[in-house]
Design goal:
Helix content: 40-55%
CATH architecture of the largest domain: Orthogonal Bundle
Distance between the termini: 26 Å
Structural class: mainly alpha
Shape: globular
Radius of gyration: 19 Å
Largest sheet: 3 strands, antiparallel
CATH topology of the largest domain: hpI Integrase, Chain A
Strand order of the largest sheet: 1-2-3
CATH superfamily of the largest domain: Intergrase catalytic core
Oligomer: single chain
């Protein structure tokens, strides 16, 4: 299982990750724009929660598609590539936040505190049905299956699934030791999965199953909510944009 699932005295602790349906449910649930953008950066750039809170607009270069992470873990700087798919959204965000120093901030324009972002993210995990309790520590502290850091784990796993070399994933995450990055190789092995599917035979999707999948399409569900007056035009527009981008990810377009 993962970091939060792992019981004491286990030798290897594999991190949990979000699958694509969970990501859609999560981002559809987030209605705080600051949390939304911060979560998006963590997912698409593999940033830690402290790195998201400390990120300044001047360190996001939309033209060259790069993000400079200042004084990350170990007080080290690093450069992270910015996927072109989220450039339009960030460009719009920066135009709305003209006189703000940080990418995400409080209502007073100050830097977001990591504990506040973590708490708010937990609220949206619960709203999306992902606030799953696992076990309590020896001192009685409750552990959960998912947290803000799960976005970073998901980023790393997704890159490996898409064939990105482990060395480049290590650089993006800012790991000093590549063995730290190798843990994600235990989570994803598409080649092995394909071989197993071929060995047992792939499940064929019939017409009925296809109809069921279409009926729970999140984009269609969002349109229905808008038509029924549950969402304003602005809320619909914002959520529609991110669902379209997440759908592109599901179809293999990063």
């Amino acid at each position: 299982m993962g970091k939060n699932y792992a019981r004491p005295n286990t030798k290897r602790k594999l991190p949990n990750i979000f699958n694509k349906k969970q990501l859609v449910a999560l981002f559809e649930a987030i209605d705080d724009s600051q949390v939304f953008v911060g979560s998006l950066l963590a997912l698409f750039c593999g940033l830690r929660i402290s790195e998201v809170c400390n990120l300044k607009k001047q360190d996001v270069d939309l033209e060259s598609e790069k993000v400079i992470v200042r004084e990350g873990k170990g007080s080290k700087d690093r450069v992270v590539m910015l996927p072109s798919k989220i450039k339009p959204l960030l460009d719009k965000w920066f135009r709305l936040q003209k006189d703000i120093e940080y990418v995400i901030c409080t209502s007073y324009g100050n830097k977001y505190a990591t504990n506040i972002l973590s708490q708010k993210f937990r609220i949206y995990l619960k709203k999306a049905g992902l606030n799953i309790k696992t076990f309590k520590t020896e001192v009685g502290q409750q552990r959960y299956a998912y947290s803000f850091h799960t976005l970073r784990h998901t980023y790393a796993t997704y890159l490996l699934e898409k064939g990105v070399d482990l060395y480049y994933v290590q650089r993006s995450l800012g790991h000093v030791d590549i063995h730290t990055t190798q843990i994600y190789a235990y989570i994803t092995n598409k080649d092995l999965q394909n071989k197993i599917n071929m060995a047992f035979g792939k499940v064929k999707t019939g017409k009925r199953q296809s109809m069921i999948e279409q009926s729970i399409d999140p984009l269609q569900a969002l349109k229905l909510r808008f038509a029924e007056g549950e969402l304003s035009r602005e809320e619909f527009g914002e959520k529609y944009e991110i669902l379209v981008e997440l759908e592109k990810i599901e179809n293999g377009v990063f």
